[in-house]
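Long-time lurker. I teach an intro course on protein structure, and each term I like to show students one example going from raw sequence to a predicted 3D structure in token notation. This year I'd like something fresh instead of my usual example. Would anyone be willing to generate the tokens for the chain below so I can use it in lecture? Attribution to the forum is fine with me.
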Amino acid sequence: MFRGLWEVWRTPGLLPLLSMHFFAYATMLTVLGVWAGPYLYDVHKLDSMQRGNVLFAMALAQTLGILAYGPMDRVLRSRKKVVLIGTYVSALVLLTMALIARPALPLAVGLLVAICFFCAFGTVIVAQGRSLFPDRLGGRAVTTVNMAQCLGLPYCPLSPATSSRLWRERSRLSLDVRHPGGRPGARLDRLLALARQRVDLIRV
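-- Reply from a regular --
Happy to contribute to a lecture. Here you go:
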């Protein structure tokens, strides 16, 4: 068993596939499962039923995206082109969402649905990973590729929350330093508190 796993990990071209699969599905799930609901409430004031309808449309778009990506490698005669197109379009959608602070509701919903549709190229990555190995290593190969997806699922939703928490602490520290009536030693206290939080995050 271990000899077969070692042979899988030594296969040329595996690591780029793992890195792509680490972020492909997890990016979509972060938007769908973590970010979209609070965004629709905070920015557009949608109630729970309206938010649920948008999230349902996003999940449906992800399913339709999987079906759409399936035959694309035969159309373009290259799985690499399919993945690159999906990656670039997904990045463009995310960039558009980042640049437009308060888009109109139809545009916001369209962008959220689009990111779920175009991020559904993970199955193409799995198919490419399977093609790198002989039949006797097929099960281990697919499991290894899917392992990258499973590792990315907790990392991508948690990393924005961790980054925003540290950013808020730095902002508070900056305000304490600039405040003329700040208590002596407040800056040192903030630095120590921030350092302790980083140690706790690393331990977790």
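Some talking points for your students: DSSP finds nine helices and no strands in the chain. Residues 2-153 form a domain with the Growth Hormone; Chain: A; fold (CATH 1.20.1250.20).
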